[in-house]
Write a structure and sequence with these properties.
Layout lengths: L1 E4 L3 H12 L4 E5 L2 H4 L8 E5 L4 H10 L4 E4 L6 H14 L2 E5 L11 E4 L2 H11 L6 E4 L17 E5 L3 H9 L7 E3 L6 H10 L2 E7 L7 H10 L3 E5 L9 E2 L2 H11 L1
Length: 254
């Protein structure tokens, strides 16, 4: 059986393709949101929840996994490093499906190595601008932006009860919490940025499949500055860039 570490659009596309090829797949995601979007199939097993190094090894044993394809988000560093370790310890193949980077630096955009660096830049410019901040980096990193004026900061996060509770606990008012699930079109992004007078957009380098192209185009249409957070450096033992390449590797050796 092939273990697909997912939670992303490309992981769901990969799973569908593997099932079409008659492969047994164990699809893992942190929550049921992603798994529920995959049609039921007798060859498919779905599991959800946090996988640390120990539970990954247990999963590999329980489901008789002979290949792990890591198609998690480019910023899910912990799960990727745990998977690399577990696969090495269990002597099974590991393949990383790594969507291409798409940082487009220019006069209206800049890349930072950490969320804190981006926060410090924003803290320094907010007094010189009458425009607001849009954070699109997810709920997990919200603590890194503490200190920015919450009455001028809007956050776009997943619409789950736990996420909304966290946002409220951090002091964000309901009007400043944009609880939506993407992907978002250029038009949707433009409408959001205009509605909330956005002048600064903070984003991860999530690749085209993560909606970066639409977000950047929209920001430029409303003359907003784009702040990219670079991906964490991870030493993947083997990686491919497309779903088709991942399927080809799976079919070749498994």
């Amino acid at each position: 059986m092939i273990l697909v570490l997912g939670g992303t659009l490309d992981s769901r596309l990969l799973t569908d393709r593997l099932l079409e090829e008659g492969k047994e797949v164990c699809y893992s995601s942190l929550t049921n949101i992603a798994a529920d979007q995959i049609s039921e199939n007798p060859l498919l097993t779905k599991i959800s929840g946090q996988l640390d190094a120990s539970t990954l090894r247990e999963t590999i044993t329980i489901y008789n996994i002979n290949l792990c394809i890591d198609a998690t988000h480019p910023y899910a560093r912990e799960i990727s490093e745990n998977a690399i370790w577990a696969c090495d310890a269990m002597n099974i193949d590991y393949i990383r499906l790594e969507r291409p980077s798409n940082i487009d630096e220019g006069t209206d955009s800049v890349a930072y190595n950490s969320y804190e660096e981006a926060r410090d830049y924003l803290a320094g410019v907010m007094g010189k601008s009458d425009r607001n901040i849009l954070l699109t980096t997810g709920s997990r990193q919200l603590e890194a932006f503490e200190g920015l004026p919450k009455d001028r900061t809007y956050i776009r996060v997943l619409p789950t009860a736990g996420v909304l509770k966290k946002c409220e606990n951090l002091g964000y008012k309901p009007r400043h919490i944009l609880a939506l699930q993407g992907p978002f079109s250029v038009e949707m992004n433009v409408a959001t940025m205009k509605e909330y007078n956005i002048g600064f957009v903070v984003t991860k380098d999530s690749g085209d499949i993560g909606g970066i192209r639409e977000k950047v185009e929209a920001a430029r249409l409303v003359d907003a500055k784009i702040l990219f957070i670079r991906r964490p450096p991870i030493a993947y033992p083997q990686s491919v860039a497309t779903v088709e390449d991942a399927v080809a590797c799976a079919l070749k050796n498994h």
